[in-house]
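Subgroup meeting minutes
Present: P.N., E.W., G.H.
Scribe: E.W.

1. P.N. recapped why we're keeping a running log of single-chain structure predictions: easier to compare across weeks, and new members can see raw inputs and outputs side by side.
2. G.H. added today's entry (206 aa).
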Amino acid sequence: MTKWKAFLSLLLSVTVLGCKPEPYTVEAGFTNGSTSGEHGVKKMVITTQSGGKANFAMGAVSGYPGAHSSGGRMDAPAYIEGHWAKGWEYPFKSYHRISAPIPGNAEAKMKTMDNYYQNFDRDYGSMEVIVDGPRVRVFYSKSCVDMYDDCTPKQGADPNGWVVRSPKNQTDVVVLFDGKGESSSTPFPNTFFADLEKRKKASVSE
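Output recorded in log:
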């Protein structure tokens, strides 16, 4: 009997220790845009903390917040990888790529944004990937616009000062990532743009 109790106790301990808390998730639309003109985004994948993947590449983008998709439910971003070009037509002005971790406080910033407003209660947000030449930023926002909504913040809702105004000063965002990728005057190998250049050169030589 004593051995049986010891076995049950061990089994319970393993079960409890093996359980991981559910990740913090949000329902969010996906946006891909730019604050510096025309860009062609062919790959832009965010991997979340739980290992899920979200595709933010929306082709020819220009302006902020840019092109939009319905998105879905996701947890906090953990890694970003992609390649894009400045311009919409070949030959492009420049080529860029990135493969980088997203800071570990992304989830805390998202929670701050979700609990920021005193009277504005929206059950979905917007996850935005903004490209400007080699620079890539990832924003999360509840898209509260003063002209239409009561965007009064709760007292003490942002002790870390994470909430800032969007590039067009229309709403509030938290910046989950702000980094620079690699740049080149020629396409990076094994990308859409490298294949496109091969086809263009082949058609000229025919």
